[in-house]
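Lab channel / #folding
Pinned by the channel admin:
"Please post every new chain as: sequence first, then the structure tokens as a reply. Keep commentary short and put observations after the output so the thread stays searchable."

First post following the new format, from NK:
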Amino acid sequence: MSGAWAASAQAWWNGDWQYRKEIDFDLSPTGADITGSLTDVPVLIRLSIGNFQYFSDVKPDGSDIRFVASDDKTPLKFHIDRFDAQSQLAFIWVRVPRLTGGAKTDKIFLYYGHTEAVPSDSDAAGTYDANQALVYHFGAAAGAAQDSTGYKTDPTKFTAEVTSASLIASGVRFAGSQVISIPAAGAARLLAGKGLTLSAWVRIDAGQTQADLAQLADQGRELTLGIDGTRAFVRYSGGTGSPIAVQQAGALTTGEWHHLAMRIGDGHLTLLVDGAEAGRADAESAEIGGTLTIGGSAAGDHYFSGALDELEVSNVARSTDWLKAAARSEGMVAPLTVYGADTQKEGGGESYFAVTLRNVTVDGWVIIGVLAFMFFMALIIMGVKGIFLARVASGNKQFLAEFTKLSGDPAALERRLAGSVRKEEEAGELDDGGSFGASTLWPLYHHGMRETLKRLEGQAAGADRVRTLSAQSIEAIRASLDASLTRLVQRLNSQMVWLTVAIAGGPFLGLLGTVIGVMITFAAIAASGDVNVNAIAPGTAAALVATVAGLGVAIPCLFGYNYLNTRVKEIAADMRVFVDEFVARIAETYS
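Reply from TO:
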């Protein structure tokens, strides 16, 4: 699993399912702000990476998804509008048995993670009550069956353009001449004494001129939901008297989705915009059983231009709270639905850290992989360098023990070890410490003596004459030793630059991974429209793993670098002291 787990609950609907997610409903004033209680409400469950990071634990087609009531016993009717594991998006409609007005006590459970589950219990018709006359998700191709209710009222004419990317999965677009015609024989009709409710999500890019979004017309009677300019309106004509019209006082925001609904019944004609009443007039309804036209009028004019999604018709006058629940659970911002924690079946829990790691995105793993390579190389360098410096220190200690025994001629050690020196020179091992392991002082001594003896060659020595060196020669020997010392220090510092790269670059690479992860998380939240802590926290926690990895590389490398650098400085200081001591002894002996 991925994301952060809550503690496992004791009750578990079915042991064959490994995981479940709690989904709460907030009808309080700070949530959807619905005061009346509702029953058997179809609610949209919109899953995305922002609130559900576990698509890899669900079967590719979502067929192991189940919904259970708050008693954790009663299965709920639902159907999948779209399930796209690759894009990590899912739109599922669930029939919620009860929503308590003004409270946030109601919840349901989403179960998933059963690899051998039989084909899904998806039941589109069962998701809606008997009063739901028509529901178009527009998931089918133009001209194909559309109605998701049990009435199966499919269109007789469909010329609108189906778009796969809409507010809720697929939708349709009208360009000013297309319509959808729904037959009079269907259940979508206005019956006297029962009323009718029609709703849809609408987006316009510019103002309209008396555009009829939906019109039910028959024998001189009509019921119309439309847009004039940027204001929604409803109009009703019962065949006698003047038409009754109600227009929105405000205006629709172009380029944004709005939930529009018209309701007639109980002696009123009502317009609702985004779940709130935008106007009302007295109206006694008469039966209208003709054709329902979407995108224009039944007469073939007043065409609508814009996008439309989720067309629903009920053959009763739905309450304002019912329509508000739809408006505040289906949009990009859905305060009604709160996606809670995920739990795993008892006995199969994982640690928070392990679960967070499984939630890391591909780009995050790329950054972590680079950091892991850097850390691996740094460990090798620190290990090898530490062993090498230990050998150098040990060799220097051995050499100094021999060198301090010299009481006079500094060449005595060279002559004493002449045989081994020649063998080492022939084998090319002298620069590696010779007889004193990895000592750096022995190469300095040998190079110094070689420079000294080279300058003494040709000078005859006898009882009355000793070989001498000029001040210039001694300075030349010092310069040669300084050059050798510099090369040896460079050798001691070799590969240390990789540790500085890990120290400086690790946190920045980790920060890059975190920024990318947070950016993806917020982009997914923006796409899904779900804004709550449960949507933000898992993705942000996973994004922070990259920063943790960067610090995990930099901190050990910082300690290792400081330790090794201190050892190098100590050895370099010993070398400088030895050079001074050696030159002083040469000067005393041969000047």
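NK: Residues 1-130+320-350 form one domain.
TO: also worth noting, The two ends are 81 Å apart (CA to CA).
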